[in-house]
Amino acid sequence: MKKRSRMAAVLCAVLSSAACGLVGAGSSGSDGADYPSKEVRILVPFAAGGTTDLLVRTIAKGMEKRLDKPVVVENKPGAGGGNAYNEVLRGEPDGYTLCDLSLPFAVISSTRQNVGYTMDKFQPIGVTYRGPNVVVVPTGSRYQSAKDLFDAARAEPGDVEIATAGATVSAHIEIERMQREYKVPIKPVPFEGVAPALTALLGKNVDAGIVDASKETLRRISAGELRALAVTSPERAPYLPDVPTFKELGYTNLTLSVSIDGLAGPKGMPAAVTRKLQTALQETLRDPEVIKTIGENYVPKEFVGPEPFAKTISDLQQTYSQVFKR
């Protein structure tokens, strides 16, 4: 009887200890219940001062208000996004280190190069930006039209250079396709983001550029620093109504150059954390000041959350796997 009593006492002690452990685990925040309890970082795979950098800083400021904790932006350009994205994926999936997932850039990089990351390792949160790219030249350029630019490239093979925001951004791939499919030997020159590409262009180190048709790019066009020659969208952009599309110019297959940005973290984040980030992002993108800063033409009219964002990634993977087979 005494032996059974002692065994019962030991069993009660074990169960009590286990229960305390469960309570402790629940209160530790591992399920995301107390998220966020410290600052949140968003890593950007491009240099400071460019379209993506300005976008993410606007988003971070808005989310900071909703999360009631600092949201810090860090630029980590280079390695086809690997410097930023691998740091995110190496960290704990706790929601404190996120990234701007730039598309199709990340899809192209991970398809064409050994960058150390794959798209299935990310947890999409929501899309923040979508817009076409635009071919631009300095206002004083001798090229008055896209036809002038591409005719010169044919007449002077390899001598006409066009800046891109990186070797694996969609604009760079479209220029490579223009070389291959339309025999236009214009030379793409990759930089680590839009800002250095435009610096090179305005410094007359390259002949032209193909960059995001963002609000900042439009500001430079309006200010007379740049002249727009062509847009990459299938239809003319409402904010550049007099600028022809690649399709109109006869390059009917070149409609893939688009910029899509979104917020993402590493796969494995607690569902509660993903939901809180999604809510904070969705509320931020409804903010009139945020929309004004980014530009109403670029913020999705309807919020694109984790599932449709994941489908966008999957669709782009299928598209570019076919492009690279050609």
Protein described:
Helices cover 43% and strands 19% of the residues. The protein is globular. The protein starts with a helix and ends with a helix. Helix 2 packs across helix 9 (271-286). It has 326 residues and is of the alpha/beta class. Strands 1, 2, 3, 4, 5, 6, 7, 8 and 9 form a 9-stranded mixed beta sheet that branches. It is built from 11 helices and 9 strands. 44% of the residues are buried. Strand 1, helix 2 and strand 2 (71-75) form a beta-alpha-beta unit. The model is unreliable at 1-5 and 7-28 (pLDDT under 50). It folds into 2 domains: 40-130 and 259-323, D-Maltodextrin-Binding Protein, domain 2; 132-231, Periplasmic binding protein-like II (D-Maltodextrin-Binding Protein, domain 2, 3-Layer(aba) Sandwich), CATH 3.40.190. Residues 1-25 form the signal peptide. This is Tripartite-type tricarboxylate transporter, receptor component TctC. Pfam families: TctC. Belongs to the UPF0065 (bug) family. Keywords: Receptor, Signal.
